[in-house]
Amino acid sequence: MESRRTVNNRINRYTGYQYGSAVRKLETAAPEVRPYNPARHEEQEQERRLRRREIRRNNRINLIYTTVLALCATAVFAICYQYLNLQADIKANNATVVELQNQLNSIKAENNSHEAEINASIDYNAIYDTAVNELGMVYPNRSQVINYDSKESEYVKQYKDIAD
């Protein structure tokens, strides 16, 4: 049979727990006591002041950085908002343009049908008969026709009557 100490050692290897009064005591390090040194104390105070100044300066820089960053973020947000508004306006205007084009096409088709109706209702034979028989009109002779060649445009503006 194993002794109690052997069993405890085997248990200690696996669990790290020790029984009894043979437990090692942790050594506590005693703080190093230094004698008061006024020069050292003043030096430490000056270091603390410098650290505080550095922290304040860094905080000011951080505040400026944060402010600039916030202003930039606000500007970007405003620009994005304006851009989205313009996009929405463009989309609405495109829809309006399409609607107006559809109206224009329907009105053009309606006008074309009315024009075709009007042209179909004209009796050219009756007009010719009235012009020749009632009004005494005749076709012009070749000597009465004057041809004009224009190289500038496709139409002629007549400001005065042409002399024979």
What features would you highlight for this structure?
mainly alpha, rod-shaped, 0% strand, 3 helices, 164 residues
List the helices and strands and how they pair.
Elements: H1 4-15, H2 38-121, H3 124-134
Q: How much of the polypeptide forms β-strand, as a percent range?
A: under 5%
Helix content: 55-70%
Give the overall average pLDDT.
Answer: 81
The span between the termini is: 155 Å
Low-confidence stretches: none
Task: Indicate the structural class.
Answer: mainly alpha
Describe what this molecule looks like in 3D.
There is one protein chain. The protein has 164 residues and is mainly alpha-helical. It contains 3 helices and no strands. The longest helix has 84 residues, at 38-121. It starts with a helix and ends in a 30-residue tail after the last helix.
Short description:
With 164 residues, this protein is mainly alpha-helical. It is built from 3 helices and no strands. It has helices spanning 4-15, 38-121, 124-134.
